[in-house]
Amino acid sequence: MTHGDQISPGSKPADPSAELRGGFTRREVFRFAAAGTAVFAGVSSLAACGPGGTASTSASSAASARPKRGGVLRVGMTSGGSEDTLDALVWATNIDGLRVFQLYDSLTALDKNAQPQLSLAEEMTPNSDASEWTVRLRSGVTFHNGKPLTVDDVIYTYQLIANPKKPLTGSVLLAPVDVANIKKLDSLTLRIPCHAPYASFYESQACYQFFIVPVGYDSANPVGTGPFKYQSFTPGQQSTFVRNENYWRPGLPYVDSLVITDYADETSQINGLVSGQLDLIGALSGDSIPAVQSGGGNVLVENGGAFAPFTMRLDQPPFDDIRVRQAMRLVVDRQEMLQLVFGGHGLIGNDLFAPFDPSYNHSLPQRHADIEQARSLLKQAGHEKLTVSLTTADLAAGSIKAAQVFAQQASAAGMTVNLQQVPVSTLYGPNYLKWTFAQDVWTYYPYLPNAREALIKGAVFNECHVDYAPYTKLFNEVNATVDPSRRRALIHEMQQLEYEGSASGYIIPYFVPSIDGYSNRVHGLTSSKTSNPLGGFDLANVWLD
Amino acid sequence: MSPLARLLTGRLVLGVITLAVVSVLIFLATEVLPGNAAYAVLGHNASPAEVHSLEIQLHLNRGILAQYGSWVSGLLSGNLGTSIANSSPVWGLVAPRLVNSAVLAITAGVIGSVIAVLLGVLVAARKDSRLDDAVSSLALAITALPEFVVAIALVILLSTVVWHILPGVSVLPPGTYAWSEPRLLVLPVAALVIIIVPYIFRMTRAAMIEALDSDFCEMARLKGVPPRRLLLVHALPNALPPIIQVIALTFLYLAGGIVIVENAFAYPGIGQGLVNAVSARDIPVIQFIVLALAAFYVVVNIVADVTVLLLSPHRRVAR
To answer: With a cut of 0.85, is the ipTM above it?
Structure first.
């Protein structure tokens, strides 16, 4: 049985050019680079065989070897602290995500190409206007405590998320669902009515906020259906999970146990890897690549779809003038920014998110720096010598550097960008979503869930204060449309509006690459476009020598 | 009252007042930090409604005075409270870290003091020799190095680049203590020893040279006291008070200075605990750790004063 069963809405392969630039190629490059170094180091002892031959054998033998069972996989990750949690529904950081992904599954999940696929659901079918969904669960799935998965668990999970007294993060994407009136057809089949048509329900369930927990769930006893079972956990320090013998994906996971340790910074992460105390580290910055490689480790660069936008408020001067917003986008030399911030890793952005969504509008021309045009737009808007203040913080790898590069590039158009650097906790503090011109970081979501959270009037993270009726109208229309080609046409129109700047205050110059380091013992780590580190948090497929 | 008893009572009273003032200052300082525990716990994926509901649950919507009041009354009844970040008892969270830090600081402090004093005495006896020049210059050079440079240099040398002999990070599995994995202690202890030795060494050398230059040593020398006896029996005891002061200062430094070394080695001590607590805005934990450090300062100061008093006969008697 494979997990690739398809259903109607959206599962076309992603943009072929993105495919070409994808992480796997990168990974091959790094493997070769590492192998090459080894060959040069040991050139005398290997004099008999040609260096090329040696390099390719070591790379290909690693790729083709049969996965082995057993062993303890030791992973080191930053971003944690005493607020670490194993709660499936309220996790917040990278290290939380890494842990939660091992313990739980959701109805649908993004695959390595960032396409939503069925996971705990075996079938999800909308009615003709997507106002009602029929969901059939995979049979034979059990929770870690032996309880079989049934529709009651799904209903219970949704009730937890949508609890009006204590709404959880997922409540936003679950808002169109009429949780109170979900009907059980049998122990594995549900009929889910919606307050409003919700054609993107399928992909929304892959957005990391809908891990299914058993009835009566208590996060102190974190029981899920995932590849690993909880054994011990100390927030801010370490968790130990063991293999789930009854995992529903046959043969997985490979390792017997999984120890995830909190690291305060990248340097100690790398020291841990290089001195052999760790097998796998994630969420590194580009600057760490040489350190990992020179210490004998391997590097995997994953070109995911996480975006780190500059956010302009549409309701505040000077950005309430669309010409200013257009000028701001035109001053960015994206290739140069990527080069300076990530050493050339990562993908170029076109001021649009969700680049791997099957409906992504590839017909919009890639925006390039055009200082003349920017100057003339600013002049028309009466802002020839525009001075703006950009609130920046160390939100994600490269955020501050990107702000500095932006300020530099904008000065070519006669603009003065004053950087106001604040602690991350300030940017995300009480003023979050209120800054006039700031930065943010978003993990990869399919297009419609992302738009629902970011660009619709009243959206929970509408940091640009977008309120553009034609866009919202299209959004509502596409959510009542199940025909894939019609959906694509509507989404293209929506992205056209974002691209012009009427429905978006985002400048999206690049997508943040995710950089992992791993020891020679580690196999089966493959690149993911989801923007989650460590192959999209996929440790079930990792095996050890 | 004997001078000793008077000193002890005076210092203890002052110490308690100091701790009370410190506890107020910490509360005020945490007020200044941007955001609160609710933001820190939920991360930026949380909606404002979610943050608000957690603020109420954690009583963060109460005023700072009310929060301080309930903390003090809890403390007086022997209850340190629970962590805001993960709702486990503060004592259970902090105690293992206190133990680990104490092990690290005391091991490094003792080893460093012994090495430094021996080296100081040895060099003082050979003042202006080549050995003196070499050791003194080296010591001066090391005092110019920040802690993290020493730590990184050791890691590069002994665990990641040059030799792969020792673990490069000292992560202890939760629930275990530093002594169960002595290998993990080697590099952090070595780093701290390298950092503290120069200070104690320089003070020992200076104090010993001063003692050796004094009239009573000159007299002893003229009487024909053998050099070793002169050094250890005549000069050293007279040089001890400043040495003890500097050793006490070193331990005080260690209470704060291990933060950086702990961080460099990811060692699960009080420093890492404090950094975690601050970034989570976990006021009860911050409060307890800082108070524990302040109490340590008070106690070490008292111990040093008492020791110096006991070593100085002319100050021991009531005047």
So the answer is: no
